[in-house]
Amino acid sequence: MKIAIIDESAARASIIEDGLAELDSPEIHILTQRQGLLAQIEAIGPDIVLMDLGNPSRDVLEEYFAVSRALARPIAMFVDESDDEAITASIDAGVSAYVVDGLSKNRIKPLLDLAVKRFNAFARLQKDLNEAQGKLAERETIDRAKRILMDSRKVSEPEAYAELRRKAMSSNRRIAEIAEAVVTAHELMGD
C-alpha cells in the first residue's frame, strides 16, 4: 500500500508514520512542501493520503481542500481544533475522515481503515448514481426517438419502439445508440 503523508512538521509526520508500523510493508512518502503538492502526489500515486494540518489558517485549509477535490483517493485530514465551516468544506472536498485532535500513534491505523471504507462506500454510491443518470439519459433519448418516429411515420409507440429495436438488432448496436442517431438526424434535418 502506498501512503502519502502530508505534513510540514517532521515530528508530527513521524507520529503518523509510527502509527502505520503495523501495516504489512507500506510504501510511505512524506511530503513537507506545499509548493507543487498536487504534482508530487500524482507522481507518487498513493492509495491513501494522510494530511496533518495542525492548526491551519483559512488559506492553508482552502489550498488543501483544492488538492482533496482533485484527488480520487481516500483522504484522512488531521487538525487540532474543530471548525464547522472547515468540516463542511472538507466533506464537500471529498475528505473521507476529518479528525479533530486525534493525532496519536494508536489511532492512525483505525482512522486509515475508516477513511478507506468511507471512500469506497462513497465511490460505490457515486458509481451507482452515474449509472442511474446514464440510464435515465438513455431512456429520455429513446423516448425522444420514439416520438420522432411516431410523428414522422404516423406509427404507434409500440411500433416505433419495435422499429428502433429491429434496427439495433440488425446493426448489432444498442437501442440507445440507434435512438441517439435518430435524434441527431432529426436535429440535422431541422424537422
Automatic annotation (TrEMBL):
Q: What are the residue boundaries of the Response regulatory domain, all occurrences included?
A: 2-116
Keywords (A to Z) from UniProt: Phosphoprotein
Sorted alphabetically, which Gene3D superfamilies does this protein's record hold? 3.40.50.2300, Winged helix-like DNA-binding domain superfamily/Winged helix DNA-binding domain
Q: Name positions with the PTM 4-aspartylphosphate.
A: D52
Indicate whether Cell inner membrane appears among the record's keywords.
Answer: no
Keyword Phosphoprotein recorded:
yes
**Protein name, please?**
ANTAR domain-containing protein
* Annotated ANTAR domain residues: 122-183
A Pfam family assignment: ANTAR
